[in-house]
């Protein structure tokens, strides 16, 4: 770690300032490079990290997630067997079942959280990061970055997975339930999306946008 990354501020600085979460010492932030991390000059607490190749890693996770999204929609999620009859359910069938029963609000929420939002998150990530990788300016980057921030809570579909597990446990009492390939793909898709968000460094994103613009 570089010692000169942070300069102890005497409040004469107009740079962006950051207070140490452990000891409250205020630091003025100088430019730091990818792969470096900023630590408090007094107590050594981690202030922030700049990941190496943040954008490439995030793009790789988003592309992987999109592949799993396609797989999750191609195969059955759960298969029920009762009295010799078997029924397979795809990801989209949860929403369709609610709509058919007349619970259209619930149907829409399930559709948005299980299909639409995860797909949107991955599409926005790819349409933002892929052009940058190819040295092109993405379409309306400010709007896409804002969308990513708004979609962040929807990227965490753990609740949906939890719902499937609860349904699985309850149904297995009176029907033969087997887990389809789709469920594994869905879990991996959620994991890849969370990783895409975690590795995406805002700072690196903005500086890459500036680079491509000029
Ligand atoms: Zn400190």
Description:
There is one protein chain. This protein has 214 residues and is of the alpha+beta class. It has 2 domains: 47 residues, no CATH class; 160 residues. The protein is 56% helix and 14% strand. The chain is elongated. The structure holds zinc ion. The site of zinc ion has 8 residues, from loops.
| Bound chemical compounds | zinc ion
Distance between the termini: 30 Å
What is the molecular shape? elongated
Strand proportion: 5-15%
On the 0 to 100 scale, the average pLDDT is 82
Number of helices: 7
Give the oligomeric state: single chain
- How many strands? 8
What strand line-up does the widest sheet have? 1-3-2
> Helix/strand/pairing class, anyone?
alpha+beta
Task: Give the helix level as a range of percent.
Answer: 55-70%
Rg computed from alpha carbons, rounded to a whole number of angstroms = 23 Å
Largest sheet: 3 strands, antiparallel
Q: How many domains make up the 3D coordinates? A: 2
Which stretches are low in confidence, meaning pLDDT under 50 for 5 or more residues running? 1-15
Give the ordered list of helices and strands.
EEEEEHEEHHHHEHH
């Amino acid at each position: 770690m570089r010692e000169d990354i942070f300069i102890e501020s005497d409040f004469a600085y107009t740079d962006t300032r950051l207070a140490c979460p452990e000891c409250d010492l205020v630091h003025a932030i100088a430019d730091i490079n990818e792969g470096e991390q900023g630590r408090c000059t007094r107590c050594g607490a981690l202030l922030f990290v700049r990941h190496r190749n943040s954008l490439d890693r995030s793009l790789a996770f988003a592309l992987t997630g999109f592949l799993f999204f396609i797989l999750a929609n191609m195969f059955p999620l759960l298969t029920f067997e009762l009295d010799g009859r078997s029924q397979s359910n795809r990801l989209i069938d949860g929403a369709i079942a609610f709509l058919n029963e007349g619970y259209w609000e619930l149907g829409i929420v399930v559709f948005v959280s299980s299909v639409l939002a995860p797909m949107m998150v991955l599409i926005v990530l790819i349409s933002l990061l892929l052009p940058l990788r190819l040295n092109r300016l993405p379409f309306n980057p400010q709007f896409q970055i804002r969308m990513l921030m708004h979609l962040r809570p929807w990227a965490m579909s753990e609740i949906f997975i939890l719902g499937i597990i609860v349904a699985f446990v309850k149904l297995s009492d009176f029907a033969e339930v087997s887990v389809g390939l789709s469920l594994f793909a869905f879990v991996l898709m959620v994991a890849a999306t969370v990783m895409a968000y975690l590795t995406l460094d805002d700072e690196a994103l903005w500086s890459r946008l500036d680079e491509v613009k000029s």
